[in-house]
Amino acid sequence: MKITDYLEEQLKDPEFAKVYKEVRAERLLAQRLVEERKHQNLSQRELAKRAGIRQSHLCRFESGEHTPSFEFVRKVASGLGKTISYIVE
Predict the structure, then answer these.
(1) Full residue range of the structural domain in which residue 64 is found
(2) Number of domains forming the structure of the chain
(3) Is the pLDDT of residue 4 over 80?
(4) Which of 16, 41, 45, 79 could bridge to 51 as Cys pair (CB 3.0-4.6 Å)?
């Protein structure tokens, strides 16, 4: 069975689909922030300092180990000189 077939079958379960969509949205947000950080040639350490957060928290967020709060995302976006609306567009 292909992974896409398995995923399609699992997404028929409303509870699975809900969790999948939430996790997918978080990963897309993290990916967007990582892309912007790299576009600006910033290290995690530099961005963390600008954002007023710990580098370890940023690392965990970028790797998917941490579910961010709205305030955390706001700080990271601000550290990038962006708004949250820009990040989620």
Answers:
(1) 3-88
(2) 1
(3) yes
(4) 79
Q: What is the CATH number of the domain that holds 46?
A: 1.10.260.40
3-class SS of residue 40: coil
Q: What is the pLDDT of residues 36-72, one digit of tens each?
A: 999 999 999 999 999 999 999 999 999 888 888 889 9
C-alpha–C-alpha distance, residues 72 and 60, integer Å: 12
pLDDT at 47 (0 to 100): 98
User: CA 37, CA 41: separation in Å to the nearest integer?
Assistant: 6
Q: Tokens for 15, please give them.
A: 């509870």
Report how far residue 21's alpha carbon sits from residue 10's, in angstroms, rounded to the nearest whole number.
12
